[in-house]
Design goal:
This protein is of the alpha+beta class and 768 residues long. The protein folds into 5 domains: 76 residues; 106 residues, OB fold (Dihydrolipoamide Acetyltransferase, E2P), CATH 2.40.50.140; 278 residues, no CATH class; 38 residues; 164 residues. Helices cover 49% and strands 15% of the residues. It has 25 helices and 20 strands. The protein has a 6-stranded mixed beta sheet. A hairpin with a 6-residue loop joins strand 9 and strand 10. Helix 10 packs parallel to helix 13, helix 13 packs across helix 14 and helix 20 packs antiparallel against helix 21. The two termini are 57 Å apart.
Length: 768
């Protein structure tokens, strides 16, 4: 009893102290006390304006937007000239407007034609901009394209075509003029409302068509010499491809693919099983050239060059060898970024390294949140669309968390390092590796969970083992391999590097095979991404105790998947791939039927891009096999495992929460379905009234609106339940990268009877 009473007393005292602190809290005073950190919020405000452009459903007209931004900037400057306080008050709004304007300008600047419908196998010509080796072939990015029977004004600026079964060494090279026959289609939109929008990503890359080749590729003589800018870009792409080929010629299989990913940024040849193991073990970030790689490259160059210069007493005494080494390291990091393809995480990492090395040149502090804010500002101004990139969010989240954590621990670490012996220094190093892995994994893992609906549970353990291997063996040998390539002796470094890569692959496969290695979570609502970002920034950018309020929106975002209802029915844009909630559940929760996928029940991912992305966003539910009427007797029915789904040769019907859902396959079944069903979903046009149906979704609805998700709220059927309908078009709004939609049958973009469905996996599109 005494213990219980003491516990209650302590809890009551803690609550009273917290209430007193909250009552005494003065936000204005705290904000003023943190004024030296205000600068860190400039990229946050600019990014919020950029996010507004992508979130709001309409697209602004640029001319009025330019006028509004210009007038507001001039008015603010005039007011600030008289009273500087106006600059503090008006700058946030100016940054919000500027972010919105920058995103609109960038969207208009990259505008290019986009295919409006799928084209049959057509003859195309174009110049190879990029040739990326894949696990099963080669993927080409073409510009200056010509497409048979397509007007030049409607021809996309760039095309992406996959050559199946073509080896990198035997395929075209950047700069080659090629002719081939390929099936092309527009970049696909989200596979379900709220899903990843590949069409938006392709728009900012000026890719207006994707597809796959149906025959051999013919290399043509070049008719026009490239300009200086094009020649430089093509030379970089050719050099990247040539270096990748030399690496793959020295190291074969998965070892060579991983080595190529670490050295040239080409990840295509990595086998799917190995790639999946790296994701499941939490080591996938090692394969993406970012902060870890740039820091190692620049750090090794800095240490080696400074050490070599220090061997000469004259140079050490009379020359600024530290600054010379910093300049050499900066040049090496820039070359590594260019050769590896200059992806967004690589650009962010290079900017951070450049600022750190620049601080050495100016005798300033090398790494701080201010330099991170400058890097974010520069990237957002140059490429506003990068804000939506998962790599951008994960990279900045990890670095901000690391810097903030070590800022808070700066004084304790300094005390622990003073008078520390070898044993304590070893413990401090081990603790630093553990802390860095945990903090960076947390900072990036929150955004990874939002984007990919998965979290690697053993990432801390895997990274603790992998970090010394990558830092002290693999990357130093990779740099030595680069140094030996001009002499043709790269095998001296790449072969022992392959031993380290083998150990890394074995580690990834080992950890990925542990029970519960991956936690799959249902998709978070859109607002939770903003909550994660705002909460993390509030926690990292402030220094006073009020920073801990940032934990609240993070917790709300993490809890949101379990308070957000899952859809009961999902239909893809062709109406031929369906996910339906089953009435039966298992120990893990809900179960679903998936059509047009594997007929095997279980917990493995279904086949196909749409189906797999649905399965992950639903939280990896258990699967029930879709009934197959062809296995029944003639004229018979096939019934699902829980009895709620029934199929015959003409279609299927399902009873869910009191609703009768009809999924006809043939128009012959439509008459009966329209008389009895509450919801009718048809992959063909419905040209008749359905008096019993509260909702009819036909081929034209799917063509106009994209994939659908239906939510049945309640358990009493149509009379007592509420039907919520979501579709892709309703969430995307009116944006320039969206296809033209209309109901006219003579439109070039209208679906034609008997047209083959356009599937993302057919067109060679990868999961984000």
């Amino acid at each position: 009893m005494a213990l219980a009473s003491g516990w209650r007393t302590e809890a009551w005292l803690w609550l009273c102290q917290a209430a007193a602190a909250l009552a005494a809290f003065r936000p204005a005073e705290a904000l003023l006390a943190e004024r030296e950190r205000w600068f860190l919020w400039l990229p946050v405000l600019l990014g919020s304006g950029i996010a507004g452009y992508f979130v709001l459903p309409f697209t602004p007209t640029l001319a009025p937007l330019r006028i509004v931004c210009g007038l507001f900037a001039m008015a603010l400057a005039g007011l600030a000239w008289r009273r500087p306080v106006w600059a503090v008050a008006g700058l946030p709004l100016l940054l919000l407007l500027s972010g919105y304007w920058l995103a609109a300008e960038r969207s208009a600047d990259v505008a290019a034609p986009v295919l409006q419908r799928r084209l049959p196998a057509s003859l195309i010509e174009g110049r190879v901009l990029l040739a990326e080796p894949r696990d099963n072939g080669l993927r080409l990015t073409l510009d200056r394209a010509w497409i048979d029977r397509l007007e030049p004004a409607a021809t996309p600026a760039r095309l992406r075509v996959t050559l199946r079964g073509v080896a990198d060494m035997a395929g075209p090279k950047p700069g080659d003029q090629v002719r081939l026959r390929a099936v092309l289609g527009p970049p696909p939109g989200p596979s379900l409302p709220g899903g990843f929008d590949f069409a938006r990503s392709a728009w900012f890359q000026r890719i207006g068509g994707i597809g796959y080749a149906t025959g051999l590729v013919e290399i043509l003589p070049q008719l026009q010499a490239p300009g200086w800018g094009d020649a430089w870009r093509l030379w970089l792409a050719y050099t990247q491809q040539a270096l990748t080929a030399r690496i793959l010629a020295t190291l074969d299989g998965a070892d060579g693919a991983i080595a190529a990913a670490l050295m040239t940024g080409v990840r295509g040849p990595i086998p799917e099983t190995v790639d999946e193991a790296f994701r499941d073990s939490g080591l996938a970030h090692i394969l993406s050239i970012s902060g870890l790689h740039l820091v190692l490259v620049s750090g090794i160059l800095f240490a080696v060059i400074r050490g070599l210069l220090a061997l000469s007493p004259y140079l050490a005494l009379h020359w600024p060898i530290k600054k010379i080494a910093a300049c050499a390291a900066l040049l090496g990091a820039a070359a590594y970024m260019l050769i590896s393809g200059s992806a967004l995480p690589t650009q962010r990492a290079f900017l951070m390294v450049a600022l750190a090395l620049g601080a050495i040149l100016l005798d300033r502090r090398a790494l701080s949140l201010r330099s991170l804010a400058l890097a974010a500002l520069l990237l957002l101004v140059l490429a506003p669309e990068s804000l939506l990139d998962a790599g951008f969010q994960m990279s900045f989240g990890a670095v901000a968390a690391l810097i903030a954590a070590y800022e808070a621990l700066e004084q304790p670490l300094a005390r622990w390092r003073s008078h520390a012996g070898p044993g304590r220094m070893a413990l401090l190093w081990l603790g630093g590796v553990l802390l860095s892995s945990f903090v960076a994994g947390l900072g990036s893992g929150l955004f990874a969970a939002w984007h990919f609906n998965r979290f690697a549970d053993y990432a801390l353990i895997a990274n603790l083992i992998a970090s010394p291997l990558v830092s002290f063996w693999i990357m130093p040998l990779a740099m030595l391999g680069f140094a030996l390539m001009p002499f043709g002796q790269e095998a001296l470094a790449l072969v022992p590097m392959g031993w380290g890569v083998e150990a890394l692959i074995a580690l990834a496969l080992w950890v990925a095979g542990w029970p519960g290695a991956v936690a799959t979570i249902p998709a978070m609502p859109d607002w939770s991404l903003a909550a994660l970002a705002f909460g993390g920034l509030w926690l990292c950018l402030w220094r006073l105790p009020w920073r801990w309020l940032g934990v609240l929106p993070i917790l709300a975002a993490l809890a949101s998947p379990w308070f957000t209802p899952l859809p009961d029915l999902i239909i893809n844009q062709e109406g031929r791939r369906i996910a339906l909630r089953a009435t039966a559940t298992d120990a893990g929760g809900d179960r679903y039927y998936f059509s047009a996928t594997s007929n095997n029940a279980g917990n493995g991912a279904p086949r196909g891009f749409d189906a797999e992305s649905w399965w992950r966003r639903l939280g990896a539910p258990g699967l029930l096999p879709w009934p197959n009427p062809s296995r029944q007797a003639a004229g018979g029915f096939a019934t699902g495992a829980d009895g709620s789904l029934r199929c015959d040769a003409d279609g299927c019907t399902a009873r869910l929460k009191g609703w009768l859902i009809a999924l006809p396959r043939r128009e012959a079944a439509l008459a009966e379905d329209c008389r009895t069903a509450d919801i009718v979903v048809a992959p063909f046009p419905v040209r008749r009234r359905c008096p019993a149906a509260r909702l009819v979704i036909d081929r034209f609805d799917l063509w106009r609106h994209g994939a659908y998700a239906l939510y049945l709220h309640g358990e009493g059927g149509p009379s007592f339940s509420r039907l919520e309908v979501q579709h892709v078009a309703g969430q995307r709004g009116a944006k320039p990268w969206l296809p033209q939609r209309g109901h006219a049958l003579n439109s070039n973009s209208a679906p034609q009877r008997g047209e083959t469905p356009t599937l993302m996996d057919d067109l060679g599109v990868e999961a984000p």
